[in-house]
Write a structure and sequence with these properties.
Rossmann fold; binds calcium ion; phosphopantothenoylcysteine decarboxylase activity; 6 helices; EC 4.1.1.36; decarboxylase; 8-stranded mixed β-sheet; EC 6.3.2.5; alpha/beta; binds cytidine-5'-triphosphate; globular
Length: about 220
């Protein structure tokens, strides 16, 4: 085996990552989605691969490209698809980082034909999707599990609540109150909260640098 690769800190580790939005079908031509660009997750994948990890990147629909021999992209569309793909890889993973903006609700029924504008109003009935991250928290054995939290108010409290409730090792808080942070764009401002209660605030950085900070934090916590 290649000596240079063998010295990288994540060599021999499998890192499972989710990225992007999910699309929940309404009818054959329409869906419910969100504005996630997928950029944060793809940057994490790239950084992990550069550190020697074998990366499985389960991604909803995005324009992002991953071109690294250690990244295996599994494209999915809906929250249900993402749930299935993630569970196929979790057992054999060492680290899982769930950065996708998964739909919380999905249409209860998908119309088989295009819905026509017959009436003045249209009501869709939505049901809850499965929480992928929480399901991994319940299933985990030795995996280091990382979630994201997108908050607009009571940020720290809500993020700590998610860390605990979903049985995570680390949560990355994304506050939409911070300028330059969030969904679209190339920068992000995040706070790391770990299961020991340590809080690390970071400055506004490129998403590429946020990804490197996150992986360094994970390496420090797992002493990989
Ligand atoms: N998540 C997931 N599956 C879902 C919903 C969310 O895996 N069906 C993950 C996200 O990828 C993220 C974390 O859960 O890592 C938190 O997502 P967020 O939307 O902030 O929180 P929710 O638990 O969905 O709660 P709410 O949207 O009500 O704040
Ligand atoms: Ca949510």
């Amino acid at each position: 085996e290649n000596d240079i690769l063998g010295n990288l800190p994540l060599h021999g580790k499998k890192v499972l990552i989710t990225a992007g939005p999910t699309y929940e079908a309404i009818d054959p031509v329409r869906f419910i989605g969100n504005h996630s660009s997928g950029k944060m997750g793809f940057e994490i994948a790239k950084a992990a691969a550069n550190l020697g990890a074998e990366v499985v990147l389960v991604s909803g629909p995005t324009h992002q490209k991953a071109s690294h021999s250690l990244i295996n992209v599994i494209p999915v569309v809906s929250a249900a698809d993402m749930y299935q793909a993630v569970h196929e890889h979790f057992n054999t993973s060492n680290v899982a980082i769930l950065s996708a903006a998964v739909a919380d609700f999905t249409p209860k029924e998908v119309a088989h034909q295009k819905i026509k504008k017959k009436s003045d109003t249209l009501t869709l009935e939505l049901g809850r999707t499965k929480d992928i991250l929480a399901s991994l928290g319940a299933a985990k054995t030795n995996q280091f599990l990382v979630g994201f939290a997108l908050e607009t108010n009571n940020e720290l409290e809500n993020a700590k609540g998610k860390l605990k409730k979903k049985n995570l090792n680390l949560i990355v808080l994304n506050s939409l109150n911070d300028k330059g942070a969030g969904f679209q764009g190339d920068t992000n401002k995040v706070t790391f909260i770990d299961d020991a209660g340590n809080i690390t605030e970071n400055s506004l950085k490129s998403k590429a640098d946020v990804a490197i900070d996150l992986l360094n934090k994970i390496i420090e916590k797992t002493d990989a």
